[in-house]
Amino acid sequence: MSNATPPESPLRVAERVRNIRISATKLMPMLAAKVGGCVSLGQGVPSFRTPDHIVEAVCRALRDDPTAGRYSLQPGMPALREAIAADILARKGARFDPETEIGVTVGAMEALVMIMLTVVERGDEVIIPSPGYASHAEQVLMAEGVPVHVPLRAADWGLDVDAVRAAVTPRTRAIIVCSPGNPTGGVYDDADVRALCDLALERDLVLIVDDTYDYMVYGEAPGTPRFSPVSQPELRRHVITVNSFSKKYALTGWRVGYVAADAAWMAELLKVHDATAVCAPTVSQHAALAALTGPQDCVDAMRTALTVRRDLTCRRLDALAPHFTYVPPRGAFYAMARYTFTDADSMTVARRMLEEARVITVPGGSFGPTGERHLRLSFGMDEAELTEAFDRIQHWVAAL
Ligand SMILES: Cc1ncc(COP(=O)(O)O)c(C=O)c1O
């Protein structure tokens, strides 16, 4: 018998996983950890701590409720589903039965995966207004579908309904609607969303509405009415909506979100939830319940802070002209900064900025082809970190 180690047989990874990638948003902080001493305009994590009353409610539940550490009912705790249904009714005027039409999930992320696996057949096309949230495309690929990137309007990152209409083919199954948008900070006009609803009805498409940032539109009082496909009764079976507690209530690490859909869809979606997560973490459901039913002044305070950070970001980007141009963000907490000082691709520029200026950004190309020649800047961090990041960029650009 030889002592030689036998050659390893190649790893046979399934195509659906070979086809997907870890998003650049998560990769950049890993690279930054190797570089050291970086400040971040990278990952979309607001700097806020989980509000005290939410922490208290979870501690209380863990102390006093013997079921707080156990699995919840598979679709989620009944009290939380009721609170979610009441919140959707109050904010969007849509009625969902908490018994059969709300599912609590492991972040909006799990909800999106449940939807893709349930709606998308192999080879089905899903239209993603681009640049769009990178994970949407990966989730479509994971479901063996085909992401079809349709450019947003460059002037304001609004929806180009004519371009979306032109992209619809007999294989089109769904359209992603994410407004306010990540990575653009763009907010779609009501008229354009209405037109998209007409298109969904006409061509029998599903609108996958990702409302993760629906609480954060600058210059708009909370509760300002905004057209939502969710509230249109004739679209009941054409709309599946997800939302997240992550950003609105500073609960990114708790991993809790939800999906709301017609009962017929929900029965199918919950099969995927059962096969993947069983239920969302029960302690996190307690956190979400406290978030929804407790005082909302923490959200107001975060909105106010984000408004200050947005204004700071715009001022600093203005000062970086003509090296960068950008569309002032109308929502969420992102800006796409278009660089004009090089023809290099966005990954090369983001890596150079990381290594030479020690500032983390996300290459725009990772959000679809329309994102190339941009860097996504997240302004979720506090003013001191934002100021330091922009000071470093300013020195770096001056020395180019
Ligand atoms: C548009 C969008 N959808 C979904 C998510 C995921 O949210 P969650 O933390 O609830 O999984 C994010 C997170 O950045 C996002 O930006």
Structural overview:
There is one protein chain. α5 crosses α6, α5 (107-119) packs across α9 (263-276) and α11 (297-319) runs parallel beside α13. The longest helix is centred in the last third of the chain and has 23 residues, at 297-319. The protein is an alpha/beta fold and 400 residues long. The chain folds into 2 domains: 15-50 and 298-398, Aspartate Aminotransferase, domain 1 (Alpha-Beta Complex); 70-293, Type I PLP-dependent aspartate aminotransferase-like (Major domain) (Aspartate Aminotransferase, domain 2), CATH 3.40.640. 41% of the residues lie in helices and 14% in strands.
Q: What would you call the structural class?
A: alpha/beta
What order do the strands of the largest sheet run in, or round the barrel if closed?
2-8-7-6-5-3-4
Bound compounds, each kind once, are: pyridoxal-5'-phosphate
Through-space gap between termini: 61 Å
Report Rg: 22 Å
Q: How would you name the oligomeric state of the polypeptide chains in this document?
A: single chain
CATH architecture grouping of the largest domain? 3-Layer(aba) Sandwich
Q: What is the element string, with H for helices and E for strands?
A: HHEHHEHEHEHEHEEEHHHEEHEEEH
EC number: 2.6.1.-
Protein name: Aminotransferase
Domain Aminotransferase class I/classII large: 38-393
Cofactor: pyridoxal 5'-phosphate
In short:
This is Aminotransferase. With 400 residues, the protein is of the alpha/beta class.
Features:
seven-stranded mixed β-sheet; alpha/beta; globular; four-stranded antiparallel β-sheet; binds pyridoxal-5'-phosphate; transaminase activity; Aspartate Aminotransferase, domain 2; 2 domains; 13 helices; Aspartate Aminotransferase, domain 1; about 15% strand; about 400 residues; Aminotransferase
